[in-house]
Design brief:
Length: 608
Amino acid sequence: MILFLSRNSLSYFQSYKDYFVAIYLIFLGFPVGDLLLMASSSSALQRISIQGIVTSGSLIAIIWGYVATKLYVYPETFSPKRLISRPFRPIFLAYALYLLPMIFALIDGWVDPLAITSTSIQATYPFDNITLPSSTVSVLLVGMGLGVVAVFTSYPLAVLSRRRALVKDREVRRALRLIASSFGVISLASALGFGLLAFGQNVLGPANFLSVILIIVAVQAFRKPTFLKTFLGVVPSLQSSPGASHYDQMLLIHGPGDEKFGPIAKYILDGVNQRERVIYFHDGDVSVVSEGLSRQGVDVTRLMLKGALRVPPLGSAYPSRGVLDDTPLEVVQELAAEAKTLGNEGLRVILDYDDFIIRPLQKFVNHLTDPRWTSPDHHLHVLMGFNSTTFRGEEASLAELERKIRTLDLSEALDTFSSTVGLSHDEISGRKLLLEFDPQGDYERVFKSLLAETASNFERTVVFTRKDSLIYSLVERQPAAKIFVMTSRVSYPKMENENLFLLPTYDTSLLLDALNKTIEAYTGSDFTIIFDNISHLVFTLGPERTYSLVRQALELMISDKITAIFSMNSKAHDQKIMSTFENMFDLELVCEAGRSVPAIRKKITVPG
């Protein structure tokens, strides 16, 4: 079982694996203690055996309650530090009360000389029809054991039942029920074993055997609920990914007008929904800001009254417009400390610079990329917005910012990619495209416009690519894009972080499974799938297997809500292979060297 848990990397419960491994290792104390009781007549050894069983039971109950609590507060973090810092939060208080009988039983078993008596009584093993000398436990310890069993059964069951109500995935719901029920019956079996031991009846062996069977049943819950569904189930947002501090900071480049309020409003609502505080520093009229956010669905007045949103002027962070010092950083750090004191889960700061800038520009760039804008615990998230005209003539400085800070560039038209092929965004949505590129051509610009368009329209983007690909370097900076990296480094799917998943290149069934689950997860939503690139697969898998893979993938993507773009190196194959793949697609775009706009080889008919 422990070996199975160590090897299974797909489970929804993978992050809890170590706790379950610890539970199963500690459980070995039960059969070992029972064997010592049967094999030895030494009262001292028998006492130690029972103490070991009591200790194992208490530790298992403590760990299992901790796991249940972590599952309950997911996706929030839970740790002893958070438990101590917020002891009166209802779920934390409930867990603290849950710990009391375990701690009392543990202490009583080792400290109370009357808890385990060595009177050399005769214990009957009813299933073996034998009688052997044994030690017994006091009524007080039995009572504590029953208390442990009562809370060990009821608390995790109640907590996980509530957790199930919050989980939409049926497989995960069934798994939670299976785990909770199995551990509940294990606790009852252990209670029965200890209760009868106090009256000279030893059934610990059968109780332990039943517990082993139930543990095997419980471990099956790790098989089906996969991280793939969890990976896809996270709704993409402008919230940056945890795990790398520079992802806690983001740059928004927008065009003139009010288009900036779309992503800013989404950023605010994401924060409020996650119980974070939001501070929006703006360089303009507060009424214009409020009106712009209101048009995007943000109830500014209500959020300000609740204390979830503040809209101070940018001048309160930069009191001297021509002078650059540490004041903005100090203000933000003070706000972050204040948010923690108030019990907020995090702080989001929006610095809407618009066309505000301080020279010398290099000093301003160094200021914007200062690591103090982030926090080690990812409690602080900062969005910096600029009008695209601000860096006109200063493209090198903007490029430096984009290299260091994750960037969402909305400065181009919303339908940049679609207009390239002579269609609107609505008309091209749901089509299946083959992008044939010349490695010497400017196909990078085409993909940039595609990613900008999906981000501007707040659509999900799912990319199948390789780490050494140009597409990967572009999409890596795309906020909340889901990236499947095809690699020979893994033989099974592996989740790296909430936006990056590794797939084995040579296993097309796993690749199709990932694609199918993506489609299932995003049913009813418009999203774009980029498949980069067919040529690599032709040389890796062969033309026949690649053709079969692409054909099956297109059959899965029959929905008109899925826009699919498959790329292919036109210079790497002969015309026969190219024609084979071209016949499967609605539209072919050809990026040739020397052309800034892709040529349309076959135009689709758009229904009127």
